[in-house]
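Issue 218. Parser rejects a valid record. Input:
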Amino acid sequence: MVKGANVGLATLSEDVGSVMVSLGWSSTTGEGDADVSVLLLDGDGKVRSDVDFCFYNNPVAGNGSVQLLGKTPTADGSEDRISFDLDAVPQDIEKVVVAASRYEGSRFGDLDDLRLTLADSAGDGLVRFAVEGADEVSAVIFGELYRRSGEWKFRAVGQGYASGLAGLATDYGVDIDDDAGQDEPEPEAPGPDAADQPAATGQDGAEPPERVPAQACGADPVLGSAPEQPAMAQEPAAPGTADPAPVPKPARRPRTAKKKVTLPRTAKKSLADNDTWRTARLFPVSALKSDRERETRATSVVLSVMAQVPEFGRRLTAGFGAPAGRMETFTEVTLPHGESPRRPDGVVRVERAGKLWTALVETKTNGNALKPDQVQSYMDIAARRGYEAVITLSNDVALEGSPLVDVRIDRRRKHKVALWHLSWAEVVHQAQMLIRHEGVGNAAHAWLLQELLQYLQHENSGCHGFQNMGAAWVPVRRGIDDETLCQGDARALEVIENWERLVRQVCLRLGGELGQKVLPVQRARRGSDPGARRTELADRLCEQGRLNAEIRIEGTPGVLAITADLRTGKLRTSIEVPAEETGYPLTRAKRLVRRLSEAPADLHIETLVDGQGAGPRGALERLRPEPADLLPKDGAQITGFRLSLFKGMGNGRGSAETGFIRSVDEAVDRFHAQVVTHVEAPAV
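Output the parser choked on:
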C-alpha cells in the first residue's frame, strides 16, 4: 500500500474476524528499538478514557479485543505484534490507531525499513505498508483500522510527530501527568476519569520525557502508573463580579483493579526432616515410563492450566489468531477421518460473542519428531470441520523458511487452516514471565503455574526444549578438524539451522529468568531470504570453522556475542562497552576496572580505538593494579572496551554434562551474571 490508501479487509480475506498487525524496522548496527502503542477512538476521534490507550504498561485494551504480544523473532531480527479481535471491539469504538515511538532523544531516522504488515487469522499476509519520510520524528502513526458500514477497513497513514508520543497521545485525548518525574509518596490508585489531568506539553512547547507511557493516567497502578496530581476547577464568574477563588474538585473514586500476584524467586524454608522427603505435587512425574505416557500427561497438564489461568491461555493462543474469550480444552478427542478415526492429543476451543475458534493440538515429548502424515491428517480434518488452526507442540524450535513439517494445502478449499508451532521452551518462558515478573489474577493461578513449571522442568517430563544438535554435528566437527568439510555440504546447513534454534532457546530461557526482552540479532537486510542467509552462514562455517551469534538483552549497553570455535574447542562470550564521554582516558580505564571489581580474574579486556587498528588488551587480574595498560601508546581515541570470557566447549551433540548445548547455556549464564550485570549502568 501507499500512504493515504485504504482497503476493506473483507475484500482481501474471509478470515478477518481477528487479525495480526506487525510493526518492524531495522538498523545497520543491529541496534535501535521503539515502543508500540494503540489508541481506541470513539466517533469524536478521542479515547473514551485513558484505559483505551494500549501500551507496554497497559498491554490489553478494549475488553481484551486488543492485545500487545511483544516482540517475536524473525529471520532477520524481530517484530512487534498486536492481536486484534475485530468482532469483539466495543461498538462505540469507530477507529483504532496503531503507532510506535522512540525515547531518550532517538528519532526514526536512525532506523531503516519502517513497515507495517497485516495478516488474517490463518496467518496469511494481506497488507504491507512501508513508512517513508519519518527522519526527524520520535513518534509515527503507521496505520489505522476503522469501521465503514459495519465492515472494517485499513488506512495506511505514515504520519510523524516531532513532539513524540506525548504529543500524539494528547491529540487523541490521553492525559499525561506533568509532574510524573517528581518523587512523591505512594499514591492511591488513580481513578478512571483521569481526563481532567493537565496535558504533557509545557507552555513553551518543550517536549516531555520520551517514555511517557509509563506515566499515563488511567493505566493499571500495578503496571506502573504515575501518582495522580490534584486538579483545580473554576466556576465561570457571573457578569460584573470578580472571579471567585478556585474550588477543589471532589475526590475521585479509586480504581478497583486487583493487584497482580507474583511468586518470590526463593522458596520458603521447607518443613521436611531431610532432603529425602518429596514435596507433594499436583502433577507427579515419578511414574512416567513411556513416551506415550509423557505425551498424554504433558498435553493434559498444559491444556488444563491454559483453561484455568486466563492470562496463560491467552498468551499461548493470541499469536495464533485466537480471540479473547472463554476457553475450554479437551484431550484424546476422537474425530472421523475416512475408515480410521483420528485422535489428536488435544483440542482448544475459545468462545467469543457466540462464535467458536477451534484448534487441534499435536504433542511430542522427549525429542521425538513430529510425523508429517499425522499432522497432514489433522490439517485435512480441521479444513473439513471448519476449524481455524492446528498447533504442534514439541521440543523443537521452528525457524522461518525452514518448516518442521511439510504439509499440503488444498487451495480449492474455501476454508483455510493455519499451522502453528510451539516449543516447550516457549511454554516455560511464558509461565516464568507471568509468575515471576508480570503477575496473574490471584494466588491460586500463580500456584497452578508454579506446579506447571515444576512439572515441565522435571527430568522425567520430556519437555526440555531443544536438546540435540542433530546427526550432522559430529561429522561436521570432524570435517573441520581434518579440513575435509567443503562449502555446499548439506550437513553444515543442518548445523547452522540447529545453532539458530539453540540461540533462540537461550534467549527464551534468559528472558524468562530476567523478566526482560532478550532477542537474537540478525545482521541481514530485511526481506532477505532466510534460506539464502543460512546457506551463506554454512559456507562461512566451512571456511572459518566458527559459529557466531548475537543476542540483545534489554537494559544492557551492548550486544552479547557468542562464538563457538570448532577448531579450538573454545566458547567465547563477549560484549562491547562504549567508553564514557567524560573524563581523561586514564580516568575512564580506572572506572571500568572499578566496576568490574567482582568480575572473574580471567576476564579478557581489549581497548577499542578509532580506525581499524587493535588496542591494548590483557586479563583483568593483570589490569587491576595497572589500569593504565589499557591506554593506547600512540594516544589514539578510545571508543570503547570489549570484555570477553573463554570456556571449553562440550563435545557431545546433546545437553548432557559434556554436551555442547549445556556448555553454551553455562557460558551465557556465567558471562551475564559475572560481567554484564556489572556494566549495565554506566558509572556516574
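Fixed in the parser; the record now loads. The chain has a mean pLDDT of 82.
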